[in-house]
Amino acid sequence: MIDQEAREATLCSAGHMPVIARPPDGPAHRLTAPVGVPLGVNELSGAAVPFEETTQPLPPGSTVALYTDGLVERPGTDIEVQIDVLAHTLDGVSREDAPTDPDTLDATAAHLVGSLVPDTATHADDVTLLLLGLPEPQG
């Protein structure tokens, strides 16, 4: 959950890839969250396993990336290194345009996918990427 007024994100993970955040004045980085059981395990086991949350600052003007493992997982590579490549690639995208502009977010997403999945015709895994741009305060 992103609370724009409080300028923070509340996260938990059910085995998902870490969220990448790029603040307007700093490098892109992982937002760490406690890792819980995968979604659906509670229903299968009949046991209520709670999810732990963490809240982290997220300033206006930030860009947030949510993605599936298909964007960063490759045979013969370290997934942790590939997540760092994603963060570094996001960090290299221009900060000139407004982070909430749909055309900017579309162009950034196309650049990230094109950089991490250079041959989509032979890529065997699904890829999902969602970019969120947090607006600057008005006025």
From TrEMBL:
<feature type="domain" description="PPM-type phosphatase">
    <location>
        <begin position="2"/>
        <end position="132"/>
    </location>
</feature>
<dbReference type="InterPro" id="IPR052016">
    <property type="entry name" value="Bact_Sigma-Reg"/>
</dbReference>
<dbReference type="Pfam" id="PF07228">
    <property type="entry name" value="SpoIIE"/>
</dbReference>
<protein>
    <recommendedName>
        <fullName>PPM-type phosphatase domain-containing protein</fullName>
    </recommendedName>
</protein>
<dbReference type="InterPro" id="IPR036457">
    <property type="entry name" value="PPM-type-like_dom_sf"/>
</dbReference>
<keyword id="KW-0378">Hydrolase</keyword>
<dbReference type="InterPro" id="IPR001932">
    <property type="entry name" value="PPM-type_phosphatase-like_dom"/>
</dbReference>
